[in-house]
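Justification of resources, computational component.

The compute hours requested in this renewal are based largely on the per-chain cost of generating structure records like the one below. Each record pairs the submitted sequence with a full structure-token output. That output is archived, and it is also reused by downstream analysis tasks.
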Amino acid sequence: QLQLVESGGGLVQAGGSLRLSCAASGRALSRYVMGWFRQAPGKEREFVTAISWSGGNTVYADSVKGRFTISRDNAKSTVYLQMNSLKTEDTAVYFCAAAITLSSTATYRTQESYHYWGQGTQVTVSS
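The structure output for this chain reads:
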């Protein structure tokens, strides 16, 4: 029903910036909570950030708060992740995910809340 495709990943030097995009097809992003997760080699997938369907509520992992910004443009069926002041520990495959509007922002951090996932885009931060 919903397909998600991430783009914008690549190699960047520590301290630099990168903007990821997640484009949806099949259905519009309206009424979906959108999240970003990441997974580094040998580590479990972890929550990065999420945004409510209206954009009014956002949640960030402590490790990225103040550096990353999530936004969405429902008219373009696209969600963005602006990443600034990148660190080597940000190196991972980044996945976007979508969930039908959740009851509470407390569930935004839980990957089990999300129904649809993109294939991921690699972000590599060099020292």
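The radius of gyration is 13 Å. The chain is about 0% helix and 50% strand.
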